[in-house]
Write a structure and sequence with these properties.
Helix content: 10-25%
Number of strands: 16
Strand order of the largest sheet: 8-13-10-11-1-14-15
Shape: globular
Structural class: mainly beta
Order of helices and strands: EEHEEEEHEEEEEEHEEEEH
Length: 282
């Protein structure tokens, strides 16, 4: 480890940790053959290079300025064609992204092949991210107003440590597990080919992110990070809005709570709020 680099926080494996309420991790959600097919499908399509990490979007365009996707706005951006599974994308040809989820990436097909899964969920938006060692993503909460309550993510090619933070002053309804309430911050290991599903409090209240590191300390074992691709499936709401019981953390009831990629809080009401001319629910 380089001099001056702070020690990696201890990461717990899901089976040994008390998970934030509403979080579920399924090991081996897909097979090695399914993983290989998914990676091949992803690498055969175009990449968007507007971020430090390359992305793909299907179903709806993900807007990184508002941290959401607008209903009725299908994907129509151009993406630079990948030069390879780990290429930079520079100098590649241009290819239009797809408005619908390709058959190879359709979650319903993957879910149907899984012996253990949540009840059937229809996802209509997919974001593909690729992470090289050292890359991460800032702590965030999926936009309340844009996406339905549940979403999930599948890890391809490598596992990763994901951090979960409970904002100060916010209570978590953990029901009968009151004696096992997790700490306000916990890091959980997401294994290769696993699926992590977010519902309830971990979806609406907790923030999740990936620290920019090249190693993770998992139950005392130093694990070097490897190239990883994530598939995040969401359901875009037919109409923006949210009446959740956490208004201070909700971008619809409290636009100032929305953390923008620039690090600024969205203090002013966003354009979709002004255009809708709808007041938040009481």
């Amino acid at each position: 480890m380089a001099t001056g680099t702070p020690p990696a926080p201890t990461v717990h494996r899901g089976r040994d940790a008390v998970l934030p309420p509403g979080l579920m991790i399924e090991d081996d959600f897909i097979t090695e053959a399914e993983e290989s097919a998914l990676v091949g499908a992803v690498n055969s399509r175009g990449w968007c290079t507007t971020l430090a990490r390359r992305t793909q979007h299907y179903g709806y365009r993900f807007n990184y300025d508002t941290i959401g996707a607008d209903p009725g706005q299908s994907v129509n951006e151009t993406q630079s064609k990948a030069a390879g599974s780990e290429g930079s994308g520079a100098g590649g040809t241009e290819a239009a992204a797809e408005d619908v989820l390709p058959a190879e990436l359709d979650f319903a097909r993957l879910q149907g092949a899984s012996a253990s899964h949540h009840p059937q969920t229809h996802y209509n938006q997919l974001t593909v991210n690729e992470y090289h060692p050292g890359m991460g993503i800032s702590p965030h909460c999926e936009t309340h107003s844009c996406f339905e309550a549940g979403f999930c993510s599948i890890s391809l090619l490598a596992g990763i440590a994901m951090r979960f933070d409970l904002p100060a002053g916010d209570d978590v309804d953990d029901g009968a597990a009151a004696a096992k309430t997790p700490a306000p911050s916990v890091s959980i290991w997401l294994p290769r080919r696993s699926r992590v599903t977010f519902t309830g409090d971990v979806r609406l209240v907790w923030k999740h992110g990936i620290s920019k590191r090249k190693t993770d300390l998992v139950d005392g074992e130093v694990i070097p990070r490897q190239f990883r691709i994530s598939l995040t499936y969401r359901t875009v709401k037919a109409e923006r809005g949210c009446c959740c019981p956490t208004p201070t953390l909700c971008d619809y009831q409290n636009p100032a709570s929305m953390q923008l990629p620039s690090g600024r809080l969205g203090a002013a009401k966003p354009s979709w709020w002004r255009e809708s001319k709808k007041a938040p629910p009481p």
